[in-house]
Amino acid sequence: MFVAANRFRVIPEHAADFEQVWLTRESRLHELPGFVSFQLLRGPQAADHILYTSSTLWASRADFEAWTKSEQFRRAHSGAGSSRNLTLGPPNFEGFDVLQHIKNEP
Fold it and tell me: Can you give the residue ranges of the ABM domain (predicted)?
């Protein structure tokens, strides 16, 4: 499995707008082979920003890389620059190969 994450430093006064952009967008992730899940996380607040992370879990790194070359990816990121005034700079991408995954199975 592979985790793809983007970290955003959101200006506190723009946090509600940032969240609204994410919560109302049309996601096409479910259309891609290997997509497992998506999460938008709100983290700690510093003096100048609130930390947010968007993360996707993929069956493999190859599935994630296929997403980045897809039409769905191009559509999902077509307006990405419009939210830059909500953040302190561009997102920071982090990719992780999953070494261990423990699930709570009933």
Answer: 2-96
Q: What is the CATH number of domain 2-95?
A: 3.30.70.100
CB-CB neighbours of 2 under 10 Å? 19
The per-residue b/e assignment along 56-87, b for 16 or more CB within 10 angstroms, e otherwise, is bbbeebebbebbeeeebeeebeeeeeebeebb
Residue 79 has pLDDT above 80, yes or no: no
Distance CA 22, CA 28 (A): 13
Cα gap 32→53, rounded to integer Å: 21
Report the range of poorest mean pLDDT among 7-21, 31-45, 49-63, 71-85: 71-85
Average of pLDDT values for 56-70? 95
Closest CA to 76 of 27, 33, 34: 27
